[in-house]
Design brief:
About 85% of the residues lie in helices and about 0% in strands. By secondary structure, the protein is mainly α. The radius of gyration is 13 Å and the shape is rod-shaped.
């Protein structure tokens, strides 16, 4: 588990969280 792995995982989590918040805002008015 090196720092590149951690950065990739953090980026994926950030993108998924942003997408989930976008969907929540779109469907939960």
């Amino acid at each position: 588990m090196n720092w590149v792995h951690l950065i990739v995982i953090a980026a994926v989590l950030a993108v998924s969280l942003a997408f989930l918040s976008f969907v929540a805002k779109k469907y939960m008015k």
